[in-house]
Amino acid sequence: MGVYMSQSAVLTEKRSTAFRQRTFQEAVEFEHKRQSLREERRRLEEEKIKFETEKKEFSIKKQIEDRRIEQEKQLFEMKWKLLESELKKLAAEKEEMEKQRKSYRRTGEQANRVEKRPSTVVRGELFFCGVTSKTALKKRYKDLIKIYHPDNVCGDKSTLQEINNEYEKLKVLYG
User: Fold this and answer.
1) Euclidean distance between CA atoms 2 and 49, whole angstroms
2) What does 83-130 look like in DSSP terms, one character per residue?
3) What is the DSSP secondary-structure string of 43-62?
4) pLDDT tens string for the chain (175 positions)?
5) How many CB atoms within 10 Å of residue 160?
6) Contact at 8 Å (CB) between 137 and 170?
7) Under DSSP, is residue 154 helix (H, G, I), strand (E, B) or coil?
8) Nearest CA among 108, 115, 83, 114 for reference residue 163
9) Cα–Cα distance measured from residue 81 to residue 98, given in angstroms and rounded to the nearest whole number
10) Are 170 and 135 in contact (CB under 8 A)?
11) What is the pTM of this model?
């Protein structure tokens, strides 16, 4: 019975040693898993912080972009209103120029009838009636050039020459 017990004690000892080794191995594996989980958690926390920072930066950029778009929208509206008002002024000026042109033609026709001139060219001095300053002279000249330039539908080369000659004379006078 002594040998049997000693074999039983040896067997128990072997089992006990194997159990301790397995328990130790499991504890080591458990510690490795715990360590890797801690690393994973730390990495996720860093990613979370990085993501939050990117989110804040994006939000700031979005606000800036929204303000820029709003400013551009306001600028566009201002430009649009300015264009509309200038277009109305231009239409009114065009209408006024047409009236002046008709008046000049009538005046020229009357002058031609009186002088018995066969030409339909209006004398240059009639275009600059009422001009009293150099700036008014320039403005009137530019307006007349726009109307009587030969490239325009209503353009007339001889009338343009008359306008140019009279402008040169008046430019020296107001110079």
Assistant:
1) 69
2) HHHHHHHHHHHHHHHHHHHHHHHHHHHHHHHHHT----PPPHHHHTTT
3) HHHHHHHHHHHHHHHHHHHH
4) 555 567 888 888 888 998 999 999 999 999 999 999 999 999 999 999 999 999 999 999 999 999 999 999 998 998 898 789 888 988 998 999 998 888 888 887 776 665 554 445 567 778 888 888 999 999 999 998 888 888 887 778 888 899 999 999 999 988 7
5) 19
6) yes
7) coil
8) 108
9) 26
10) no
11) 0.37
Two tokens, residue 45: 């926390």
Structure token pair of residue 130:
């009422």
> Cβ contacts of residue 109 below 8 Å, gap of 6+?
120
Residues, the chain, total? 175
| Structure tokens that stand for 150 in this block | 């030969």
Kindly report the CA angle at 88 between 86 and 91, in degrees rounded to 5? 110
